[in-house]
Specification:
Strand content: 5-15%
Oligomer: single chain
Strand order of the largest sheet: 3-2-1-4-5
Structural class: alpha/beta
CATH topology: Rossmann fold
Order of helices and strands: EHEHEHHEHHEHH
Helix content: 25-40%
CATH architecture: 3-Layer(aba) Sandwich
Length: 231
Amino acid sequence: MGEKKKAVVLLSGGLDSATALAVARAEGYALFAVSFRYGQRHSIELESAARVARAIGVERHLILNIDLGAIGGSALTDDIEVPKQRSDEDISSGIPVTYVPARNTVFLALALAWAEALGAEEIFIGVNALDYSGYPDCRPEYIEAFERMANLATKAGVEGRMRLRIRTPLIAMRKAEIIKTGLRLGVDYSLTHSCYDPTEGGLACGRCDSCLLRLKGFSQAGATDPLAYAG
C-alpha cells in the first residue's frame, strides 16, 4: 500500500471548513490543516479549529499569523459594527461589511506555498456560493481563476511535477446539505464556532449573518445545533 496523498485544508474552525476537512478525510488524504490568526475579532474560532483538527485527525495543524487588522476595511478586523438580525433577502443581496478585503486570496496563496513545499496537489477550502453572505472570493469563477494562477505561479506547476487543484466540495450545497454531509461523516459540530461577534465569554451571538445562516441550516436539516447562544 503506497503512501497517502497529501491535502492542505483551510480550517477556520467554522462549520463549513470542518465539513470540508471531513470530506478530505473520507477521500483518504493525509491531512494538513492551516488556520490564520489575522486580527479577526472572532479569534476564538482558532480554539475551535484546534479542537476540530485533533478530532478529525490531521498530520499537522499550522496556524499562521497575518495582521489584516492593519489593513482594516471589514467589520471582522476593524472598528465597524457587525450587522445583526438581517433578513434572508438582505443577507443574500450585496456584499456586506463583514467581507475582509482579499482574505481568501491571501489565505489560498499561503496554503498554496505550503502545498508546494509538502508536495500536496490538493487544497481544500470550504467556500459556498449558495447559503453565504455574497463574498466575491467564494464564487466558482474565482476558485477556477486562482487554480489557473496556482499552476502558473509555482515551480512545481511550471515544471509539470504537480497539477495543483483547489477543491471546493461544498460550493454548490445549501447549508442544510452541508450539515447533513458533515453529520454523515462524523463531524462533531459542538467543536465548531461560526459567530462573527461572540460574547466575551465566547458564546455565539445568534444574530449575525453567520449565526443566522447556521441556525437556519440546522433547522432545515432537521438537526439540533449543539452550540450555546447568548440570550
